[in-house]
Specification:
The protein is built from 3 helices and 3 strands; from the N terminus they run H-E-E-E-H-H. The protein has 100 residues and is an alpha+beta fold. A 3-stranded antiparallel beta sheet has the order 1-2-3. Strand 1 and strand 2 form a beta hairpin. Helix 1 packs antiparallel against helix 3.
């Protein structure tokens, strides 16, 4: 048999998984919409850590606009997480990063 060691491969995969989980927890992105009227903070697991809404956005009284701003900020934060994770995972996995 060649030098293929399944246990060693599994151990390496587990270490990479654990490293990725730590990066997911430590990655925090922030995105805003409406010129900063709504700001969302999200971690790498796409858990929302906070939402800030400028009081002036509420005073405008346009609920639909505020809903759209919140949705846009959440979507942008999600995209930022995807970008951050793709570059992190791409670095960890070398040439396989483009497949993710």
């Amino acid at each position: 048999m060649s030098g293929f060691n399944l246990q060693e491969l599994m151990s390496q995969a587990k270490q990479q998984y654990e490293t990725l989980q730590k990066k997911l927890e430590q990655t925090v992105v922030e995105a805003s919409s409406g010129g900063g009227s709504v700001t969302v903070k999200m971690d790498g697991r796409k858990q929302v850590l906070g939402i800030k809404i400028d009081p002036e956005a509420i005073q405008a009284g346009d609920v639909e606009m505020l809903q759209d701003l919140v949705m846009a900020a959440l979507n942008e934060a999600g995209r930022k997480v995807d970008q951050a994770m793709q570059s992190s995972v791409g670095g960890m996995l070398g040439g396989l990063g483009g497949l993710l």
